[in-house]
Every structure is written in C-alpha cells, then in structure tokens.
Design brief:
Shape: globular
Order of helices and strands: HHEEHEEEE
Strand order of the largest sheet: 1-2-4-5-6-3
Number of strands: 6
Distance between the termini: 11 Å
Largest sheet: 6 strands, antiparallel
Structural class: alpha+beta
C-alpha cells in the first residue's frame, strides 16, 4: 500500500483540517501523526486555543491512522480531556495509536503534545470502518 499517496490524499481532501492548518506528517495502519501551529485565529474569548483545535487535531490523526488501511472510517464516539492550554506560536502534535481489538469497530488513543512534550489533551476515539475503499 502506498502510504505516501494516502497521506497526500488526506492532506489534500480534508478541507476542514486544511482550514485549521492541520497537516498529517506520517501514517501507517493504526498509527498517524498530525501537526498544527497555534495562531491567533484559534483563540477563544478567554484568550486560549478553542477546545475544538485540540479535538480536531486528534480526530484528524485518528482518522488518518484508520485511513492508512485503505478504507474509509468515521468517528462514532469519543472521550476527550483538555489538560492544559497552549499559546499562540506553540507547535502541537497529535499522535494516534490503535488499540488491539475490533475489525469493524476500532478504538484509538490520541495525545496532543507541544514541542517540549507538554501534554495538552488526550482522548479515546471509536471508529467504524466502512466497506468503501479510499480512491487515490
């Protein structure tokens, strides 16, 4: 399987992630790493990144880890915790790892960290693997 083509396809066709500045750097079946730099446009009225920034970064990483199998998948459930706030300019990384188990329902864990290893958020995502192949 050509993981580079899948990665390029995910970066090119995920318009929501592109708008947020999220980029998938690496993927293989059951694993992906996505990155984003926090901008002023990511801030909520309190002056910290909106929770959706962390969540979207983690969800993109998990969805990419699932997509590396060559079939589409959708998030069906998630438990997510926001632990710390990043600042404008911080480079965030989300790493997703699939847990052993299901074939059609799959569980992944994601951690969102900063460049110095600070843990900002973590979650467990449940996906349904679809029977539809990813067209490249």
């Amino acid at each position: 399987m050509d993981f580079e083509r899948i990665r390029a396809s995910r970066n090119g066709s995920n318009f929501f992630s592109r708008r947020l500045g999220i980029y998938v750097e690496e993927l293989r079946p059951g694993y992906a790493r996505a990155v984003k730099t926090v901008t002023e446009e990511d801030l909520n009225p309190v002056g910290v990144p909106h929770g959706g920034v962390y969540f979207s970064l983690a969800d993109t990483a998990c969805g990419s880890a699932m997509g590396a199998y060559g079939t589409m998948a959708v998030t069906i459930n998630c438990s997510f915790s926001f632990l710390k706030s990043a600042r404008v300019g911080d480079h965030l990384t989300a790493e997703a790892h699939e847990l052993p188990g299901g074939r059609s329902v799959c569980v992944l864990e994601a951690r969102v960290t900063g460049g110095d290893g600070t843990l900002f958020a973590a979650g467990t995502f449940t996906f349904r693997r679809l029977e539809k192949k990813i067209e490249l």
